[in-house]
Amino acid sequence: MLRQTTSTRRLLQLALGRRTHSTISQPKISPAVLNSTRALDRYRPGERYNGFVCTRTEYIADFNMTAFLFRHEGTGLEYLHIDRNDSNNVFSVNFRTTPFDSTGLPHILEHSVLCGSERFPVRDPFFKMLNRSLATFMNAMTGPDYTLYPFSSTNEIDYRNLQSIYLDAVFRPNLKYLDFLQEGWRLEHS
Question: What's a single GO MF annotation on this record (predicted)?
Fold first, then answer.
């Protein structure tokens, strides 16, 4: 458990740009590890790729994966790419959604953006995909100061379809008043 906790913390710190130090001894290098560390040669810090600059790379031995952190030059958007020999493809759009009060606005918006979008104007495309997709995981969640829209699939065509739906939902949501009335209410018990 210590290995997983330490590696998860290191991965999050990589995404946040903080320096990390591991107290765990590293295992001997196996052929599988060598293949994963060779991924480090794919992207180099300081080099540009389609409008993104690679800002950091790190091999994370505990998970046998390589993490690459990119920053978009025009918008400042951060992109964390994880290279691992795994058939499950994972994608997530994450936003910092620091609340200004206790109304629950980030959570209301999390639900509202999944109620149809520009390219997918049907009512609740997210829930329709739960029964039609080959996804191994689909969800959306709001934390204290972030909102996540993750999914995963082992099927590449399904992965691309879900990616298209998720990206359209979060960047071009319909945000209709009726959806807000459905999602933006709560009961207060005294």
Answer: metalloendopeptidase activity
Tell me the HSE value of 131 on the side-chain side, using a 13 A CA sphere: 4
Flag residues of the chain having pLDDT under 70.
1-39
Cβ count near 75 (within 10 Å): 8
| Maximum pairwise Cα distance, the chain | 62
Helix (H) or strand (E) holding 71: strand 65-72
Residue 102's Cβ-count burial label (10 Å; 0-12, 13-18, 19+) is exposed
Give, for 109, the enclosing helix (H) or strand (E): helix 105-112
- Cβ partners under 8 Å of residue 35, min gap 6: 85
SS3 category, 27:
coil
**pTM of the predicted structure, to 2 decimals:** 0.74
Residue-wise pLDDT tens digits, 67-115: 999 999 999 999 999 999 899 999 999 999 999 998 999 999 999 999 9
- Is the distance from CB of 112 to CB of 180 less than 8 angstroms? yes
* Count of alpha carbons within 13 angstroms of residue 120, beta-carbon side: 23
Say which residue the tokens 């409008």 belong to: 51
CB burial of residue 157 (10 Å; 0-12, 13-18, 19+): exposed
Q: Which residues are catalytic?
A: 110
Q: What is the DSSP letter of 117?
A: B
Helix 156-171 vs helix 125-132: crossing angle, to nearest 10:
170
